[in-house]
Specification:
With 568 residues, the chain is of the alpha/beta class. It has 21 helices and 13 strands. 55% of the residues lie in helices and 10% in strands. The chain binds arginine.
Length: 568
Amino acid sequence: MNPIIRELEGALGGALAGAGLAGGAGPADFRPCADARHGDYQSNAAMVLAKEARRKPSEIAAAVRAGWGGVGLAEVTVAGPGFLNFRLTDAALVRGLAGRLAGRYIEPVDAPKTLIVDFSAPNVAKSMHVGHIRSTVLGDCLQRVARYVGHRVISDNHIGDWGTQFGKLIVGLRRFGSEDRLAADPIGEMERLYKRAHEASQSDPEVQEAARLELKKLQEGDPENLAVWRRFRELSQSAFDGIYGRLGVRFDETLGESFYNPMLRGVVEDLVARGVARESEGAICVFFEEAGLKDKPFLIRKSDGAALYATTDLATVKHRVETFRPDEIWYVVDMRQSLHFQQLFATVRRWGLGVELRHVGFGSILGADKRPLKTREGDPVKLEALLEEAVARARAMVDERRGDLGEEERRDISEVLGIGSVKYADLVQNRHLDYVFEWDRLLSFDGNTAPYVLNAYVRIQSIFRKSGDPEDAGYELGPPSHPRERELMLRLLQWEDVVAQVAEEQRPHHLCFYLFGLAGCFHAFFEDCPVLKAEGGLRSHRLALCRVTAGTLRAGCELLGLRTVERM
Ligand code: ARG
């Protein structure tokens, strides 16, 4: 929370206490006024407390106004049936941004939690495709934000590195494998091997049987098959690492599904012993009483004894609880898996592991035809190809705009712009919704896009270059001298609250909308308020505003996982 908003809360608490209301500590719930003519911040505390105290809201609001002690802070007015509107004083605006000018952007949360963020989680021997963008980009942003506000965060990549596909892969490698191809394009070759073995097994029961046997050998720990599996895994991991490097995403842990294999039997036994799971037609299931899950048992052991995705996820929760003692685990996974997570969470509750679990679900990325994005051949779009294309398109834009810059710088800007645009296009959507992927829109300099936000930052950097001042010049904020300055200052004050909201709701689009609005405020300010031509205190004040705006844009981009550039 911005220190000024905290002061406002304190002053309101005092005024409410003066009006005879429950110690004064009411639900302040300050939010920016939708209409600037009414004020800067609004509170519905009078309405809420009136209900509890069985008094009229207008009477309480009037009493708050009469007993308002925060005169140096804000002016209070009452609107409608009892809304309290606050207009910050100039001094309060300056004070609210003083910490930021000194480089303090956030105060850590009062009660830090330990959080595990489970995201990305691609599957071995397959390329990461467009379906993994959302989990990777959203998950990375959320783990950054959670850390930033002061939580202890463990990011964990729950890679799909175990499963029935390895039977066919092993057969594929032995019968159709090419070392050369495996060296040149490991993932492509693994996909080809799987496809060939799969097709062969459809028409030839002998291949089918061979795959079953290889899988069984692998599961029983056959050293040769284990070695092949390890190789598939390593090849995949290095391909994933290439993409993560390019995206600037890192994990504290990469504990794939195979890591939990030795624990699966014990988990099933424990759940049965505690009466959480029971036998049914030879299999073992968890049955639920909860509405919506009544007729949807959670299968944790098949009748042939095999464990499932569900069993692994149960073992994973237990391991995480015992190893990291998390307060919460966030699963950044496609909404299409929401039934799985409802079942998982309900099972964990009954198991009594004492951890809060959250499915941070998201919708699909659609093509222009409003169907899940596919290549012209009908395959899922590969993430690597998508990033390549983004950077190539950005490069064309940069070449056109900034032919004056050297090759290396143009290459770097294109990378930042291309990758940043793809990420931003994803983060700007309310994650529950599907969205249509449109190159022209996401790379546009107009609209709520990465280029627009980055451009505001770049514009400010150019002001500083032209200023001729040293980098550590001591600018000082003053009272707003123009309505555009006041708007910009107010916007800047909202930063802490927006970041907190993203952390609480796990919704990065709030941050994108904030940065978009901030960039807009800055452009409007810059249009109407000369900065370098101003003199003395006014110049210093306006440059201070530029500095805080640039710092806020940059901090926001960092939280979204976007790099910034100095020119473009
Ligand atoms: N590998 C899975 C997939 O690609 C996602 C795993 C998500 N995490 C989890 N703990 N289930 O669909």
